[in-house]
Amino acid sequence: MGSRSDPDRPALSLFAEELRAARERAGMSREDLAAKISYSASLIGMVESCRRVPQAQFAASCDEALGMPGTFARIQKRLRTLSFPESFRPFAEHEAAATSLRTFEHSLVPGLLQTAGYARAVLATRPNTTEDEVEDLVAARLERQAVLDRDSPPLLWSVTDEAVLHRPVGGKEVMRAQLLHLAEMADRPNVTVQVIPYSAGAHSGLLGAFVIADFGGAPGIAYLETAAEGETVEEPSVVAQVALIFDTLRSEALPRTASRDLILKVAEERWT
């Protein structure tokens, strides 16, 4: 999973110790518990030895199988950022608390709008990342998307370059499913998806992707993608500069309905 900061390790150890203790009190082997929760005994072993970060569904299944409602789910909430790349962890809390999110991507579908297949294909390109670590990263990315399904979801305004629709990530089936999902998400009242067409030519967004988290009356916070590690920025003057770039990019993009039509057209003509 990469390096873990000291504040995270106790929560990971706590989850492992509680799981092992509860399982043994119930007189279950790892294989017995695996059969009840539909996860492998080897995964349970890795969680109990702190070699895997448990995801939300795993925690909920353990709560039910071991008769401990909410116990593992509460501990797991403290671990959620542990499955994110280290550079993104500071921003993850801001993303979850934001009232609105403005995001620009020039190469990839934004993480909050990715399918599992697309996310897996993207995350598998990370250097020195095992298959198990990729699955943890995919699960964490999908968990992030739950913010869009809560009772009062943030407004998400996503602007992407048309190149995102044409870049082959994971093959034709993955791309077609991803673009159809993107179009479906664009139908939600709290989600706006706009595409900057190739005809717009060069634009300032080609210099880098970013996300701005807004909090109503509080100052916004930006996350800037970089070649090495992303950067969370709270300096008001920098956030204002990024917001201005977003407004400029939005003015270059196709309207909402035309953007959705282009997404569906590319899905049918290029990825069928």
Commentary on this structure:
The chain has 272 residues and is an alpha/beta fold. The chain has 2 domains: 8-80, 434 Repressor (Amino-terminal Domain); 84-269, Endonuclease, Chain A (2-Layer Sandwich). 48% of the residues lie in helices and 13% in strands. It has 12 helices and 6 strands. It has helices spanning 8-25, 30-37, 41-48, 56-65, 71-77, 89-97, 116-123, 131-144, 163-166, 172-185, 236-252, 256-269; strands spanning 100-105, 155-161, 191-196, 210-215, 218-224, 231-233. It has a 6-stranded mixed β-sheet with strand order 3-2-1-4-5-6, with helices on both faces. A hairpin with a 2-residue loop joins β4 and β5 (218-224). The longest helix is centred in the first third of the chain and has 18 residues, at 8-25. The protein is globular and about 65 Å long. The two termini are 36 Å apart. The model is unreliable at 1-7 (pLDDT under 50).
Low-confidence stretches: 1-7
The appropriate CATH architecture of the largest domain is: 2-Layer Sandwich
Note the main sheet: 6 strands, mixed
Q: Please write the CATH class name of the largest domain.
A: Alpha Beta
* Number of structural domains: 2
The structure class reads: alpha/beta
Helix content: 40-55%
Order the strands across the largest sheet as they lie in space: 3-2-1-4-5-6
At the fold tier of CATH, the topology name of the largest domain is Endonuclease, Chain A
The strand count comes to 6
Percentage of residues in DSSP E strands:
5-15%
Instruction: Categorize the overall geometry.
Output: globular
End-to-end separation = 36 Å
**What is the H/E order?**
HHHHHHEHHEHHEEEEHH
Q: State mean pLDDT (0 to 100 scale).
A: 90
Radius of gyration: 20 Å
Q: Can you count the helices?
A: 12
